[in-house]
Amino acid sequence: MHDIKAILEDPEGANAALQRRHPDLDFSSLIELAERRRALTTQYSGLRHEQKTVSEGFASKTMSDEDRATLRGQLKELSTRVKGLDGELKALEEQLEHAALCLPNLPSAETPDGASEEDNKVVRTWGEKPTFDFEPSDHASLGEDLGILDFEAAARVSGARFALYRGLGARLERALASFMLDLHTEAHDYEELLPPYLVSRDAMVGTGQLPKFEEDAFRTEPDDLFLISTAEVPVTNIHRGQILEAGELPISYAAYSSCFRREAGSYGKDTRGLTRLHQFQKVELVHFAKPEESAALHERLTGHAEAVLQALELPYRVVELCAGDLGFAAQRCYDLEVWLPGQSIWREISSCSNFGPFQARRAGIRYRPAPGEKPRFVHTLNGSGLAIGRTVMAILEVHQLEDGGVRIPQALQPYMRVESIAAS
RNA sequence: GGAGGAGUGGCCGAGUGGUCGAAGGCAACGGUCUUGAAAACCGUCGGACGCGAGUCCCGGGGGUUCGAAUCCCUCCUCCUCCGCCA
């Protein structure tokens, strides 16, 4: 959510920033609502004051029954007016809040201009694209041939866009989760969490999935709970409504979870293999930071995700998203794209975002800079460290062998307890 | 799911219709004293909105009333007992 006060102070600047993301958006209706609210609030507060003052007289003074009746009549009328105004004010506030919750975050000054994916900037590349003496296969064929991925069975059970892992495939997912969590908790100093996968509507609003993107989420009936699309949702909401101590920041959590996405509107897109599923597993990294440290932390966070790819010997590039391609809540974002030789494409495997105070304002997460000082909103950041299904894809495609087997990278061998997945 | 009890400021806890944003204690912060510290004493000490007078917030929402932390309804959370269950 936005700082309405700041927008009222500099509407042109705010509009310009918003339009870097999308030329059709602006704050004009928000500003109008905010100004009407200000006027109404002033009126309401004056009227309430009058009501309180007169009411005090009614309570304490001794007076004749006649005077009392008159005063009561007066108060009754005041009360009616207060209630009327209160109703108006509440309706207006609801409108204002809804409008505010539906506007995306402003891109940070560092975020490059651009309208779409085409305009993203490649920041750096790591590793060499592998070369093969044979025609490399894609992960779906490799996985099915090795008997470790079974999409047919998954479709029988759940329909399209689900995967069933078998044998060493199932172990590979588990090994990757353990490897990533160990790396982040031991080398990068994260606290490991295992969050709930079902969350309240309020939690979804807090991180920005709602109210605008309800059709993207799986929702349970009749309890109105939502299946998480990422562990970011439960983990960020851990501190909702709290005022944290400056000394405890930054707080860093690493959480493994399944992630559930309806993928509405992506019919016919990425239908093969593990690329785009209704359920996948991910290790997510989440930070709560002071505003002045968030930019540097964003770089470190990205490095933590990169460390996983490097340890797994997977070539990748870091792409900075342009303003037009940013996610709803992000002000700045690096995507990590892994090279998939079986498909000859770069594929997003991690997205590392700085949300600034956007989510914190929605979820009411603040910190006190020093004892006695006013609370300020924290900055929240998160990044995938990594998406596990897509990591499986990359391992299969990058480390495939001529005979159809797959080499397990050194760092993962203690977890897999085999050096390769052999072709049968 | 059924029956009962409870939700007040960072924490504990008073307050059961009017002057209560809320006693008291603890913690915290500033100061006096001290070589320093402790103790003692003095002061400050929730958040939001408004230029300000002032207004709003006592788990959330709604209602009764001239007036609600206090009464009613509803939802949520926690505790106890029963049921069910990994």
CATH topology value of the largest domain: BirA Bifunctional Protein, domain 2
First-residue to last-residue Cα separation:
54 Å
- Approximately how much helix is present in the residues? 40-55%
Strand order of the largest sheet: 1-8-9-10-13-7-6-2
Domains (count) = 2
N to C succession of SSEs: HHHHEHHHEEHEHEEEHEEEHEEEHEHE
Number of beta-strand segments: 15
Instruction: Profile the largest sheet.
Output: 8 strands, mixed
Structural class: alpha+beta
**Percentage of residues in DSSP E strands:** 15-25%
Description:
With 424 residues, this protein is of the alpha+beta class. 42% of the residues lie in helices and 19% in strands. It is elongated, with a radius of gyration of 27 Å. The mean pLDDT is 94. The structure holds one RNA strand of 86 nucleotides.
Give keywords:
Helix Hairpins; 42% helix; BirA Bifunctional Protein, domain 2; eight-stranded mixed sheet; RNA-binding; three-stranded mixed sheet; alpha+beta; single chain; 424 residues
Itemize the secondary structure elements and their pairings.
Elements: H1 4-9, H2 11-21, H3 28-60, H4 65-101, E1 121-126, H5 139-146, H6 151-158, H7 168-186, E2 191-193, E3 198-199, H8 201-207, E4 226-227, H9 232-236, E5 243-245, E6 251-260, E7 279-289, H10 291-311, E8 316-320, E9 332-340, E10 345-354, H11 358-363, E11 366-368, E12 376-377, E13 379-387, H12 388-398, E14 406-407, H13 413-416, E15 420-421
This protein binds one RNA strand of 86 nucleotides through helix 3 and helix 4.
